[in-house]
Amino acid sequence: MIVVTAPTGHIGGHLVNALLDAGEPVRVVVRDPARLAPGVAARAEVVTGSHADAAVVAKAFAGADAVFWLVPADPRAASVDEAYSGFARPALEVFASQGVGRVVGVSALGRGTPVADRAGYVTGTLAMDDLIAATGVPYRALVMPSFMDNTARQTAAIRSQGVFSGPIAPDLRAPVVATRDIAAVAARLLRDGTWTGFAEVPVLGPEDLTHAEMAATIASVLGREVRYQHVTGEALYAVRPGMSPAMARGLLDMAIAKNEGLDNGVARTPEWTTPTTFRQWCTDVLKPAVDG
């Protein structure tokens, strides 16, 4: 049995379908089953609730050969540590007590870089990884740069204003990755019962890009002018209504760390390179969303 947390998100949605199509028995943990993709509820076991709830994870992880672990965003958390390690605490006890076979988790690049200890959300994620590994469960942390799919959040601005914005310096060259490729790597590891221990697995798209180059690619694919607008750090901190001060600060600290090379500490190898280019992602995902 493979358990998938956060099955309605970008990564989880791709992953659930990949596992079901491969004939794997799947159990999903979801707050609202109505948000599952069509057909999933009929083919998978469904446990309703949050995977931050001790009773829910005890039920969901019982007899699990493998668990896919993803912490959902919590912009109102009291601290970054509470948002990640605090959220994971009930699951840590289950990993240790119920004999879960292996865990594959969503993490981030940055371990070992000079800025890893002041990188906001990434610092919190890496600390959570250490806690999961300390339970003794075999664990693979998928360490990634920013997602291509984050750009799709700005579909409306791209459509109406020809602009997308963010805190990353326009000329910083760094890797990006498509969530469908992350899901493919996760599916492979979840189905493979031969690995043990703890390791990080970098998941990098096939090219390093600047945000200026990304804007040029979007413009080329859409056939319209698109530019990148750099939002400076303090402005980013100020325009996050609904966030707790700690989580807004964590977002800012992560952006600053990325601008200082957080995502550039791992050399790309064939083993760690995924197939989807940014241009292909724009063609397959962004263009239909903008045109629609």
Describe how the helices and strands are arranged.
Elements (H helix, E strand, L loop, with lengths): L1 E4 L4 H12 L4 E5 L9 H4 L1 E4 L5 H7 L5 E4 L10 H18 L5 E6 L12 H14 L4 E6 L1 E2 L7 H7 L1 E4 L7 E4 L1 H13 L6 E5 L5 E2 L1 H12 L4 E4 L2 H6 L6 H15 L18 H14 L1
Parallel strand pairs: 1-2, 1-4, 2-3, 4-5, 5-6, 6-10, 7-9, 8-12
Antiparallel strand pairs: 9-11
Count of DSSP strands: 12
Overall average residue pLDDT? 95
Helix content: 40-55%
Order of helical and strand elements: EHEHEHEHEHEEHEEHEEHEHHH
Domain count, please report it: 1
Strand order of the largest sheet: 3-2-1-4-5-6-10
Biggest pleated-sheet summary:
7 strands, parallel
Named at the architecture level, the CATH assignment is 3-Layer(aba) Sandwich
CATH topology: Rossmann fold
Q: What do we call the CATH homologous superfamily?
A: NAD(P)-binding Rossmann-like Domain
Low-confidence stretches: none
Given the helix and strand composition, which structural class is it? alpha/beta
Shape: globular
As a whole number of angstroms, the C-alpha radius of gyration is: 19 Å
Strand coverage percent: 15-25%
What is the count of helical runs? 11
Terminal-residue CA separation? 38 Å
CATH class: Alpha Beta
